[in-house]
Amino acid sequence: MLGLGAAGLLVGASAPTRAVADDAPPSIVEDFSYPGAAQILAQQNVKLISGDGHILLADCATPPEGDIGLLKVWTTDEQIGADGIGRVCFKVTARTGLLNLEVPGVYEIRGDGQRTGTGHEVTAELRSDEGEEITVEVDPDGSTQVGLGADPDASPTMLLRLTVAG
Q1: Least enclosed by CB within 10 Å: which of 17, 37, 49, 68?
Q2: Which helix (H) or strand (E) holds 76?
C-alpha cells in the first residue's frame, strides 16, 4: 500500500509552471511632449507643449556660435522668462524644427542670425486676444514686430508655434 500511496501523491502533484508576464512592454510611440514642461511653466511662466526637439528653451545669456545666436521672444509680461524682463530664448539645433508653446503678450521675435543671411528661416503662428490667427515670417537676422509691436492699437498676441524650415 505504501507504494500505491506514493504513486497517488505523484499523480496528484502538479508539474512546475513558468510565470508569464502579463504586462505588455511600454509603448515606444513618442508623443513629443516637451521634457520638463511643468517645471519651466512654474519657473519661467512659459508653456512649452510639444515639439520635435530641434527648438530648445535656452538661457538668453548663451553666446552665439559663429553667426548663429538664439531666437528671442519679447513679451509685455515681465514675469515671462528667467531674467524678469519679459524675454524667452530658444536655440535651433537643426535645419528644421517645430515647437508648440504658449507665450502671451508677444510683441517682437528676433531671428537667430548675427549678420545678414545667417539666421534660420522661422515662421511664427500667433493668436490675438480677439481670436485672430496670425502667421508671420520672422526676419532671420533681425527683429519682427507682432501684435502690439506692429500696431500699438492691436490686440495682444499669444505665440502658439515656431517652425524652422531652413
Answers
A1: 17
A2: none
Q: Which residues pair with 71 in a beta bridge?
A: 90
Longest dimension (CA), the chain: 105
pTM, rounded to two decimals: 0.80
- If you ran DSSP here, which 8-state letter would residue 143 be given? E
What Rg, from alpha-carbon coordinates, does the chain have?
Answer: 27
Residues of the chain with pLDDT under 70: 1-32
Q: Which of 82, 138, 146, 137 is nearest to 113 (CA)?
A: 138
DSSP 33-60: BPTTHHHHHHHH--EEEEE-SSEEEE-T
Spans of all domains in the chain: 34-165
The C-alpha cell 520672422 sits at 138
Nearest Cα neighbor of 35 from 51, 16, 18 is 51
**What is the distance of C-alpha 7 from the center of its chain?**
69
CA distance 43 to 24: 36
At residue 23, the pLDDT reads 55
